[in-house]
Automatic annotation (TrEMBL):
The chain crosses the membrane at residues 12-33, 62-83. Keywords: Membrane, Transmembrane, Transmembrane helix. It comes from the Bacteria. Residues 51-86 form the DUF6460 domain. It comes from Mesorhizobium qingshengii. The lineage of its organism: Bacteria, Pseudomonadati, Pseudomonadota, Alphaproteobacteria, Hyphomicrobiales. This is DUF6460 domain-containing protein.
Length: 87
């Protein structure tokens, strides 16, 4: 078994034939939906940008909840510590 065959996982001719068949099927589906390769790349880019923005939005909401809760919890904690300190 040659290094090329080991790398490709099959004989080069069979790999080329498989790639041609899969490429034809993918091209057929993309044409049916009216997609171009750039549409796919823009879709992937938009997905990661939206994921990035969503992550920071979630972090912003999380920190907002912490600050909102801390506005009640911290003063209550301080008042309880002062009340228990006198005893």
């Amino acid at each position: 078994m040659s290094a090329l065959t080991r790398f490709l996982g099959d004989s080069p001719l069979r790999v080329i034939l498989k790639l041609l068949v899969v490429s034809f099927l993918v091209g057929l589906v993309m044409n049916a939906f009216g997609w171009s390769p750039m549409d796919v790349l823009y879709g992937i880019q938009k997905f990661f940008i939206d994921l990035w923005n969503l992550g920071f939005h979630a972090l912003d909401r999380f920190l907002g909840y912490i600050l909102l809760g801390a506005a009640i919890v911290v003063p209550a904690f301080i008042l309880l510590r002062i009340a228990n300190y006198r005893k």
